[in-house]
Design brief:
The chain is 65% helix and 0% strand. By secondary structure, it is mostly helical. The chain contains three helices and no strands.
Length: 80
């Protein structure tokens, strides 16, 4: 199993790719895609900001991978 630090770095990389794509300057009109992307990302943030400091890295990783896959029209993202 990969270290938590490496997994977080890969999650961060995917999140940056999503940010770059969203800010690319083209008109974002695909609401059927964007709504689930935003939903997955907001749930990942919600998991990370748990007031008790308990979160599942697996859940955060899965949500960010899902958002990335949806935005870039990929079947899945290879995290490893």
């Amino acid at each position: 199993m990969q270290s938590e630090k490496l997994r977080l770095k890969k999650i961060q990389h995917l999140a940056y790719e999503i940010t770059d794509e969203m800010n690319r300057g083209k008109e974002l009109t695909q609401l059927d895609t964007l709504i689930p992307v935003i939903d997955n990302l907001s749930r990942a943030i919600g998991d990370l900001t748990d007031s008790f400091g308990k979160y599942s890295l697996d859940n955060v990783e899965e949500r960010v991978k899902n958002a990335h896959s949806l935005l870039f029209n990929k079947d899945s993202v290879n995290m490893y």
